[in-house]
Structure formats: C-alpha cells, structure tokens
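Students often ask why inverse folding is considered easier than folding. One informal answer: many sequences map to the same fold, so there is more than one right answer. In these notes we will look at a single instance of the problem. The structure comes first.
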C-alpha cells in the first residue's frame, strides 16, 4: 500500500479520534447530563504539551501520542468499587452511542451512493482474515485493494476499514472489562494461535506504520485547535 494511502488512513483515524472528543462531549452535555472535567486530544503522561480552559471550566489538553479521552468530575479519587463500575459502564454507554452514530452515518452514505455497506464490511473482514492466515501476502494484497479503491473510492473504502478496526478494538476492550483476567486470557489465546497456526499480525512494512503515526500526529495537531470552534 503506497504512502498516500497510509496518510489517508492516518487522517481518517485522527478524524475518528477528533469526533470521539466532540460527539461524546455533546452526548454528555445534552443526553447524559454529566459534568465533564476535561478533554484530551492526543494522550499524554504527566503534563500535557499545551492546554487551555474553556469559559465553562472544561480543560482541553493536548498531548503527544495518538488517542483521545474524556475525564469526568466525579471520577476524581474514585476508590469505591461501585463508583468505578459506574464510571466504566458510563464509558461503555458513550462508546456504544458514538459508534452507533458513526455506523448509521457511514452506512447511510453508502446506501445513498448505491453500495451495500454490509457487503463492504464483509469484503474487508475477508481480506483481513486472508492476510492473518497468510492465504495472501502483502504483494497479492495490492491488486485486491486497488480493485476496492476503484469500486468504492479510496477515502470511502478506508473509512470502512478504520471504522471496522475501531469497532473491533472497542468490542475487545468491552469484553475484557467484563472480567479482569479476561484480557490476559485473550492475549494468551492469541499467542497460542500465532504459533500453532502460523498467523501474522503485522503484515505491512515498518515504514507503513511510521507513515500512519506521523499522519495521525500532524492531523491531530490541526484538529486540536479546531476544538475551540466545536466545543464551547
């Protein structure tokens, strides 16, 4: 996959994370009526690179690693198990609503343009399965992706790829949160499958992942300053 596609994927993922700040903010403000303490655009450890406070007291933080998060006022110093479970359940509700909105919008656009969104998702999952199980290699992937680019358009097809990736990631995190040892068990199963069935999880050249990381970081720098217009 050429560098242009890596950059497009990076920008789409950054947009996804940007929307994760904006949409849940308004979900909380108008639907869940929760008190938001801060919004982090890009993850940081310790002090953020830059931050500012809105008139309503919400602090906007800008870190240095791809990712985004929302902090709530009642999460400060949580030590009660019921409070922690409530905060986790609230986060899951936000994620479900957020992904539901994205699926609805993207599927609606696909239907308007005369495409079957379920068929697109199925094709992406088949490609991923064949890559992981080594039924096709990186070189064989190029004409397959080019065919989908031609059929659906590059940006449109990659939007589906990113959305599916994020939904799978969310479902894995949701499943792992049901039991504290479930994440370790899942990781152990993946390691066993990797060696038993000779799977591959990193099928692209290292430069591809570097391109995506750079594209995400640069585009989120831009989106961070756009938050001033969208979150008031």
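Output (designed amino acids):
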């Amino acid at each position: 996959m050429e560098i242009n596609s890596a950059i497009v994927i990076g920008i789409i993922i950054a947009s996804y994370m940007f929307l994760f700040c904006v949409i849940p903010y308004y979900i909380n403000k108008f639907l869940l009526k929760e008190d938001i303490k801060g919004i982090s655009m890009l993850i940081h450890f310790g002090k953020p690179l830059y931050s500012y406070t809105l008139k309503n007291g919400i602090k906007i933080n800008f870190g240095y690693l791809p990712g985004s998060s929302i902090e709530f006022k009642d999460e400060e110093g949580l030590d009660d198990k019921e409070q922690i479970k409530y905060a986790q359940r609230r986060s899951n509700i936000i994620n479900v609503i957020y992904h539901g909105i994205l699926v609805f919008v993207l599927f609606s656009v696909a239907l308007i343009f005369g495409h079957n969104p379920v068929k697109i998702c199925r094709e992406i999952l088949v490609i991923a399965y064949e890559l992981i199980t080594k039924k096709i290699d990186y070189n064989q992937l190029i004409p397959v992706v080019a065919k989908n680019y031609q059929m659906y358009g590059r940006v449109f097809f990659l939007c589906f790829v990113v959305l599916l990736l994020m939904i799978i990631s969310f479902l894995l995190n949701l499943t792992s949160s049901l039991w504290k040892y479930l994440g370790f068990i899942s990781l152990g199963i993946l390691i066993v499958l990797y060696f038993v069935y000779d799977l591959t999880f990193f099928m692209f050249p290292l430069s591809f992942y570097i391109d995506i990381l750079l594209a995400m970081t640069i585009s989120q720098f831009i989106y961070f300053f756009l938050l001033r217009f969208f979150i008031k």
